[in-house]
Amino acid sequence: MVTAAVCAVVAGYRSYTAIAEWVADVPDATVLALGIAPDRRPSEAMIRRLLQALDPRLLTAAIGLWLAGRATTSAATGRRAIAVDGKSLRGSRTTDAAARHVMAACDQVSSVVLADTDVDGKTNEITRFQPRDSDMPVDVRVAGALLLLYGLPMTKIIKLRADQLTEESGRRYLTVKAHRAIIPPAVGHLLDFLPTRLPADALVSTQTSR
């Protein structure tokens, strides 16, 4: 029934009543493919109770895992490229609430959205970013985080110096040219594990670019 509701929404039927009408009107072969008996199509009340009872985070995680298992890696490099970006959801604004803003991770080869998380008014995209690949060297993880968060190319990341990092009032900042950007706590935690001294006080090793 959840799959049927998703199909209805994709087709433009957004209210509970409209979703029920879509399910009631589609051909028997379609509802059979969706796992519903043609003579036992769900009512509006049944669909509404089911969707209201669903945990949106668990549903998102389940769909993300399912899609991730079907996303292919790049044939050229054998590595997966994942883009992270935030957007406000169209149509989510109401008279008494701002538009819902989410940050999503997308596989660049298949264009599949692997996961997303809410970004409410009390935080921002930077603080919601959580680099967790503990299998990679720390400086590679830091470089990747800087690339994703600030759009810095690798040629600039390997030129960053340790003195471009500052701390003020319990927050860490990275200064690039005249711009100072706040560093998320998760990335700041990674910085604590970097070697205390790299050649020419570099922030990350030149090996990172390889």
Overview of this protein structure:
With 210 residues, the chain is α+β, with helices and mostly antiparallel strands. It is built from nine helices and six strands; from the N terminus they run αααααβββαααβββα. It has helices at residues 2-10, 16-25, 28-33, 44-53, 56-68, 125-128, 138-150, 154-157, 185-191; strands at residues 82-88, 101-107, 113-118, 165-168, 171-176, 179-183. The strands form two sheets. The chain has a three-stranded antiparallel β-sheet with strand order 1-2-3. It has a three-stranded antiparallel β-sheet with strand order 4-5-6. The termini are far apart.
Could you provide a short overview of the structure?
The protein has 210 residues and is α+β, with helices and mostly antiparallel strands. It has 9 helices and 6 strands, in the order αααααβββαααβββα.
Helix/strand layout:
Elements: H1 2-10, H2 16-25, H3 28-33, H4 44-53, H5 56-68, E1 82-88, E2 101-107, E3 113-118, H6 125-128, H7 138-150, H8 154-157, E4 165-168, E5 171-176, E6 179-183, H9 185-191
Antiparallel strand pairs: 1-2, 2-3, 4-5, 5-6
Quaternary structure type: single chain
Largest sheet: 3 strands, antiparallel
What is the 3D shape? elongated
Uncertain regions: pLDDT < 50 for 5+ in a row? 205-210
Number of strands: 6
Helix-strand pattern: HHHHHEEEHHHEEEH
Q: Helix coverage percent of residues?
A: 25-40%
Sheet with the most strands: spatial strand order: 1-2-3
Q: First CA to last CA: what distance?
A: 48 Å
Mean pLDDT across residues: 75
Portion in beta strands = 15-25%
Alpha-beta classification = alpha+beta
- Whole-angstrom Rg: 23 Å
Tally of DSSP helical segments: 9
